Amino acid sequence: MKTEKWLIIIVVALLTLAACSSSRVKMDFPKWWELQNDKDNICTYGMATKASQTLSIEAARANALAEASRYVETQVRSMLKNYEEEAGVTNPQVLALTQNVVKVVSEAKFSGILTGQMEVFKETIARDVRYTTYIQMKVPKVEISKNLIENIRNEEALYNQFKASQAFMELEKEFGN
Fold first, then answer.
1. pTM attached to this predicted model
2. What are all long-range contacts of 110-113, with beta carbons under 8 Å and residues at least 24 apart?
3. Which pLDDT does position 46 carry in this prediction?
């Protein structure tokens, strides 16, 4: 009898601990995610989950392009703004009022960007549809090099302009103006 009570107490304690534990789920990404196996391009990656398939693709693309601009700018000049407004998550009629604005501000300009691979997954939870998009964008290494060289030239020009203005101020001091 005493053994049964201890067994019940241990089982209840284990069930309580199991109920309080967090449920960690490993997210699966596509097999091609984060690969850099293209000798001519830098591959950047973006992911987004939205109520609209088109918005999901566009937001994932914007995230990948923001990552590409970070290759060029070492300062935090990339800014990604994702605004999503939903009214009535479970009501499909109200779900049509979803608004999404994606704005990417970057100092880098690229041409020749290609979409590498893309996977879109549709998930329905309690009549609420969501699309998750994984996208790979390919930016030619030549374009990234051009942007880096342009940034170095701009920094050098600003520095030279600063030094010239300092020299001019010293000259004005010398002649008392």
1. 0.55
2. 110/65, 110/68, 110/139, 110/140, 110/143, 110/144, 110/147, 111/143, 112/139, 112/140, 112/143, 113/65, 113/68, 113/137, 113/138, 113/139, 113/140, 113/143
3. 93
